[in-house]
Write a structure and sequence with these properties.
single chain; alpha/beta; Rossmann fold; 2 domains; 6-stranded parallel sheet; 12 strands
Length: about 350
């Protein structure tokens, strides 16, 4: 099914459910009990990172509330598995009997759908999971389906949208309290040793990986960028799928520090925390940098919703926008200029 057909199907489903459910206009705040809350967590690493500000604020303001996450990918399930703010995780696409026993037989005080657009899976689970009340983010396709809606502009940063739930609960939080974090994970001996290298502190970081084919910059572009900074230490980060490209870059330039591959985002975050700035396509490493207050030069496609909703949050940044739907079409000169601006050169 094409992307357009999928979008139309989701919209038709939402309209059908709206006709069947047709709740009255949502109220401004929830005053009922909050012993348990179920949160539908999105499928990508970046979305998971941007959900963490809500979790820490919920734990701070409602320490006795049991926070249950419903996850839809193994990657996100593992990401949250060590999060001290999470009470339980329910993997919806795992063993169905286990899922039904663990989540569908319970009744929660509150359910929160984190998506700001109609999603077939999230709409269905919003209705299947028993909850005293249901909350979502304002959208034409969510009206009539949820008891409460977070009324916020579509182009607002995702952490602010998620933390909008705090206002529904009568505990609004300032933007400064919505910085993401990374749940702790095991750190390998190789990473521990690399973190102690004197040349790492203040180095420039480049992340060559991206979550979508349209967001990759080319090897030639990365080389052109590195060539301009021969006197700066540089660290190359990548996903396991792009280790070959990382190794080639490290072997091509003497000022690039050879780094061990990271096995999780927490390890990547420890490296990013040491950097003076990070250059990266629009992917989860943008939000890792936000969690560490590391400045970011972000490479984004032309579509405005990507850079408004998923921009670096609460950290200095420069965004370089492609003239097309492909990050590869960003000229090296534009990225070099943005890097120099953040470096105050």
């Amino acid at each position: 099914m094409s992307t357009k057909k999928k979008r139309v199907f989701r919209q038709v489903l939402a309209r059908t459910l709206q006709t069947l459910r047709n709740l009255p206009p949502y109220r401004s705040s929830y005053n009922g009990p909050l012993n348990t809350i179920a949160i539908l967590a999105q499928e990508k690493y970046g979305d998971a990172i941007l959900l963490t500000p809500l979790l820490k604020n919920l734990k701070k303001e409602f320490p006795e509330t049991a926070i249950h996450l419903v996850t839809f990918s193994k990657a996100v399930t593992d990401f949250f598995s060590t999060d001290p703010n999470v009470t339980a995780i329910h993997f919806a696409k795992g063993n169905q009997i286990t899922y039904i026993k663990s989540i569908l037989h319970q009744k929660f005080d509150l359910l929160f759908n984190t998506k700001d657009h109609p999603s077939r899976t999230f709409l269905i689970h919003s209705l299947l999971i028993r909850a005293r009340c249901r909350t979502g983010i304002a959208s034409h396709f969510h009206e009539g389906l949820y008891d409460y809606l977070i009324d916020i502009d579509y182009h607002s940063p995702i952490p602010l949208k998620n933390c909008g739930l705090m206002a529904i609960l009568g505990k609004p939080v300032p933007a400064e309290s919505c910085r993401p974090y990374l749940p702790p994970k095991p750190v390998s001996k190789k990473i521990e040793q690399f973190l102690e290298i004197p040349g790492l502190k203040g180095a420039l970081g480049i992340n060559i990986s991206a979550g979508w084919p349209t967001r990759y910059w080319t090897d030639e572009n990365w080389k052109a960028l590195v060539n301009v900074f021969p006197d700066r230490r540089i660290v190359v980060l990548s996903s396991p799928a792009d280790l070959e490209g990382k190794t080639k870059l490290e072997r091509s330039f003497p000022n690039i520090l050879t780094s061990p591959s990271t096995s999780n985002l927490y390890e990547a975050g420890l490296i990013v925390d040491k950097l003076q700035l990070l250059i990266t396509p629009d992917t989860s490493l943008v939000h890792v940098a936000s969690s560490k207050q590391t400045p970011v030069v972000g490479l984004y496609v032309k579509a405005p919703q990507h850079r408004t909703r998923f921009q670096p949050f609460l950290t200095d940044h420069e965004l370089v926008i492609s003239p097309t739907e492909f990050v590869k079409d960003i000229a090296p000169e534009a990225v070099i200029s943005a890097v120099k601006k953040l470096l105050h050169q």
